[in-house]
Specification:
By secondary structure, this protein is mostly beta strands. The protein contains one helix and 21 strands. The strands form two sheets. Strands 1, 2, 4, 6, 8, 10, 12, 14, 16, 18 and 20 form an eleven-stranded parallel β-sheet that branches. Strands 3-5-7-9-11-13-15-17-19-21 form a ten-stranded parallel β-sheet, with no helix packed on it.
Length: 252
């Protein structure tokens, strides 16, 4: 819970910085690209509405960034410092914000949002933590959803997250190596959290309904955990501190 709150605060700070840098909604679209280095590629497209802002900073080599925004009051920011990083963001709707940081090497990140007032953050190698060969994908449909993937200090991790509904929250933190996290939520006011500080772990969570909470914590190695919840007000939690364990929980 402490880690979850910390990430929410970090996300709030990042979005606040983006909002403070954004123009007033009455302004026309604004795009900014800065690419010191070699072999960088950046593409930004803003196809409609007012007050859109897209910023791309690439400080390194072989980076590629792509941002597409279609709607009103959208914000998108990509910052890449390293080698051969790839980031892509697409926002369709109103009042969305997306933020990607890649401070390591050979990381891949993508975010897609379609709806209103959704928030998405991906960090790979941020805060001075070197990370390499991580992959993060997030997809959000609906209103008021929050998604965060934090891959700082680990290598070879994979995180995939999907939310369809309203006011759902999903977080994945991978500080170990070669972990896999997959989370999907449908409905309203659901919360799903995965923390993987060990290595070679797999976590899968699925929730459909409202006000459900699912948590998986894997500080050990070579563990597997799956949680499936359908309904209202369910709570499920798995902690695997040892090695080579397997756990499954289903609540309908």
């Amino acid at each position: 819970m402490i880690s979850f709150k910390r990430h929410l605060l970090a996300m709030g700070s990042a979005i606040a910085l983006m909002a403070s840098a954004a123009p007033a909604f009455a302004y026309t679209n604004t795009a900014y690209i800065s690419q010191p280095g070699s072999y960088n590629t950046a593409y930004q497209y803003q196809g409609g509405g007012n007050g859109n802002l897209a910023i791309t900073n690439q400080y390194g080599n072989y980076g590629s960034a792509s941002q597409i925004q279609n709607g009103n009051n959208n914000y998108a920011n990509i910052n890449q410092s390293g080698l051969a990083n790839i980031a892509s963001q697409t926002q369709i709707g109103t009042g969305n914000a997306a933020f990607i940081i890649q401070g390591g090497s050979y990381n891949i990140a993508s975010q897609y949002q379609n709806g209103s007032y959704n928030r998405a953050v991906i960090e790979q190698g941020a805060g001075g933590y070197y990370s390499s060969h991580n992959t993060a994908h997030q997809y959000q449909y609906g209103t008021g959803n929050v998604a965060g993937i934090y891959q700082n200090g680990g290598n070879g991790n994979y995180a995939w997250q999907l939310q369809n509904g309203s006011y759902n929250t999903v977080m994945a933190t991978q500080s170990g190596n070669y972990n896999t996290s997959r989370q999907a939520q449908y409905g309203y006011f659901n919360t799903a959290t995965v923390t993987q500080s060990g290595s070679y772990n797999t976590a899968i969570q699925y929730q459909s309904g409202s006000s459900n909470t699912a948590t998986i914590n894997q500080p050990g190695n070579h563990n597997s955990a799956t949680q499936d919840q359908i309904g209202t007000g369910n709570i499920a939690s798995i902690t695997q501190a040892g090695n080579g364990n397997s756990a499954t929980q289903v609540q309908h």
